[in-house]
Structures are given as structure tokens and as C-alpha cells.
Hints:
Layout: H1 3-11, E1 15-19, H2 20-33, E2 39-44, H3 51-60, E3 63-66, H4 69-77, E4 85-87, H5 94-102, E5 107-110, H6 113-126, E6 130-135, H7 161-173, E7 177-183, H8 194-212, E8 219-221, H9 238-249, E9 255-258, H10 262-265, E10 269-281, E11 284-289, H11 298-302, E12 308-310, E13 318-324, E14 333-341, E15 348-351, E16 372-377, E17 380-385, H12 390-394
Parallel strand pairs: 1-16, 2-3, 2-9, 3-4, 4-5, 5-6, 6-7, 7-8, 8-9, 11-13
Antiparallel strand pairs: 1-10, 10-11, 10-15, 12-15, 13-14, 16-17
Pyridoxal-5'-phosphate binds near residues 44 and 225.
Subunit structure: Homodimer.
Family: Belongs to the Orn/Lys/Arg decarboxylase class-II family. LysA subfamily.
EC number: 4.1.1.20
Amino acid sequence: MTKFSALAQKYGTPLYVYNFDTITQKFSALKEVFKARKSLICFAVKANSNLSVLHHMAHLGAGCDCVSIGEVKRALFAGIPKYKIIFSGVGKRDDEIEEALRNDILMLNLESEEEMKRVEIIAEKLGVVARISIRVNPNIDPKTHPYISTGLHENKFGVDIESAKRMYIHAKNSLSLDPVGIHFHIGSQITEVNPFKEAAEVLANLLRNLKALKIDIKFFDVGGGIGIQYKEEETIALYEYAQSIFSALGGLDVTLVCEPGRYLVGDCGYFLTKVLYEKHNGFKRFVIVDGAMNDLIRPSLYQAYHAIEAEGKEGAEKSVCDVVGPVCESGDFFAKNIELPALEHDDLLVVKSAGAYGFTMSSNYNTRSRVAEVALQNGEDRLIRRRETFEDVIALEKACL
Ligand SMILES: *Cc1c(COP(=O)(O)O)cnc(C)c1O
């Protein structure tokens, strides 16, 4: 029996499995290319927010990039030091800003002048100085899927250079704001160095202009977005990536901050799902599995490709099929027109590169229980989130009977 078959038998399916040793390797490789400078790697919690994953990140020395107060609290709860936590996002509520300030995290990443004014008012009320960073939109095309492209003026994220400059000047003169960082995040699943290089150059120039105004920025945050290999796409050479940022920075003395999500956890994850049955509609072959779009929505949402392998069927003859789930939507599929061997009830399929934006984007659609998550580390497996029961799913509702 293969390792995955044994895990499927022990924990049931559908199931997420994350190899923590892979996370360690990816983290170390990134830290290594940054070693010529002070750097802080802040894992983007939204990619995989399981507490054990975050605890592992804390153990590696990572910080966290959060996009809600819930994520900030998760990071703190999992043992990430407060001085390594960044709070980003275009729409922060007053109560979220207040709680972030009370928790004294590293910095709030601001995305508009309006937001800066709210932060200033709340900091003043609390009698604290808010450390802030500004997300600058460098208007650069990251050449990725439009849903995960964020660095163009047509996207809702960040502010343009001129507004950023005004904001920094305002912040410097404010008693309640301390501008400590500058930030860009141009998109996700980026597979070329050039967009990063261009964005880093635009922001490094702004940083030099700010320096001339006696605004001293300490953190240069290059966001996330490093792509991984789902299919045959080229990926970024990390060394080249780091060097292009270093060369943009030149002699500027700043701490480099990087916010990878997918890069750190994407490849570590496997989604295990069992075949319920095969079905043929005329010439079309469907493999119907027990996992569905509510468990892993990336294929439906972004037409994302995930490699799928049938366990224990090496060498068997293959034919074309669609792999679909039981949810009542035509968009409920994991793959279309891929080649798989003939499959029977209970055969196991392994959906690869599922560690990022998998479980975190899952839902209870069709009153399906969210699946269990398992960690693999040093050859051992352990449950890090139990499967939801029907009672869990309805626990917060009232039937008014
Ligand atoms: C989503 C996000 C990230 C992580 O993106 P990846 O493509 O997963 O690396 C980093 N920073 C910010 C601000 C984000 O919104």
C-alpha cells in the first residue's frame, strides 16, 4: 500500500495532506537567497491558515502577512511574535484597526488616504503611534490570471506614487502615525522575474525621494506572488529574483520583507479524493469523486490546473476523462480532458500542489462537511484539523422549532 493510500484509510477522504518538511525546504531556500541583507519572510496566512502550519512557520522564524483581524489573531495564537506580523488589505474595519493597534503588531499596510485617516483617528484615541506601511501600486502587469493580478491601476489595490508621497508626508507630520514601510504586491502565481524587478525599481526610486524629505523607511516589502509549477510552466529562479531586488535597492539600508503564500505551501499539499464511480455520457467519460469544488475551488474559480495521479495504477492504459465532484454545479470539476487509467469504486486520486488556497477557500456548500487536514513531518503523520461533523455544520443555526 502506498503512503497516500494508508493515509486515506487512516483518516478517510476527502483529505488534505501537507508535507511540513517541504515547507521547511522552501523557506530555507528563500532565506538563503536573501542572506546578503536583513530580511523578514512573512507567510501570507490566507494561503493556508491551519494553526499547525502557522506554528511551523513560527518555528522556522517566519512572520505573517494577514488580511483580517481573524488572521492576525490566528498568527498570534500560533506563536508568531507580534513584531513579525503585518496587517494588509483594502478594507479594514475600525474594530480591526483598533485591535491590531492594541496588539502592537509590526505595521499596518495602508491602501488609501481614507484608510490612513481612520488609522490616525483610532491611534490618537488609543494614545498610541501606529506604525504604517503604504501599498504602492506601480502599474505593472504581472502577466498572470486577471483574478490574481493586483498591481495595475485598474485593480482595487494600493495607491499611485503621487498619492503615496502625499500620504508619507502627512504621516511623517502626524503625532499618531509612524511611516516605517513601503510595500507592493503585484499579483499571484507570477512566473517571471521582470515584473518584480520593475516594481522594485519604481518603489526604490520613491524610497530615495522620501529619504530626501527626511522620511526614513526601514522595511522594503516586495509582497508575495512567487509562482510554483502546477503544470509545465517555468518558475522563477529565486537567486535571480533576489538579485533583481538587491540591485534595485542599491545602497539603501532597509530590511527586506517578502510575503510568500503559495510559494511556501503550494507544493507541500496534496488533496486526496476517492473515486465513487465512472460514468459515460455518450462518448464522454466522467470520473466522479468524493471531493468537490467546495473543498478545492481553484479549478472552478481560476480554471487552475492541478496534476492528478491515480494511486497504484502505474503503467495502466489511460484514456481521456473529466474528474468531477458531487456538487450540483457544472463548474464542479477538478480537471477536464486529462488522461487517467480505468478506475473503480474506492480507487484513490491524488490532486497535487493543493497546499495553497485549497482548504482556506473551502466552504460548506451543499451542506458538505469541511474535510480533515493532516501533517507529514519526519516520516510521521498527525491530524491537524478533524473532519467536520454534520453537527459542526449546523451548530450556529436556529430552526425556531
Ligand atoms: C495574497 C497576498 C500575498 C501572498 O500571495 P502569494 O501569491 O500566495 O504569494 C502576499 N501579500 C499580500 C498583500 C497578499 O494579498
